[in-house]
Amino acid sequence: IRPVKKPKSRNPPKKNGVVHPALGTSEDSESDSREEEMQPERRYPERIRRPPEKYT
What spans are recorded as compositionally biased (Basic and acidic residues) (predicted)? Predict the structure, then answer.
């Protein structure tokens, strides 16, 4: 949670505006920068298909 909060403050500004400023607002911003390589599907499907499943 801590390591994610820090990068989430400096990553979203560039990733959020380059990839998807609509989805990468807050929770997606952190995963969009680091998890986008591991699970790029988690960006939109996480809140569209199964938000609680992806997070939990």
Answer: 36-56
Cα distance between residue 5 and residue 25, in whole Å = 13
Residue 40 near residue 28, CB atoms below 8 Å: no
State pTM to two decimals. 0.10
Task: Calculate the CA 16 to chain-centre distance.
Answer: 9
Long-range contacts of 45-48 (CB under 8 A, 24+ apart): 47/23
Tokens of 55: 């997070």
Q: pLDDT tens digits for 39-50? A: 555 555 555 555
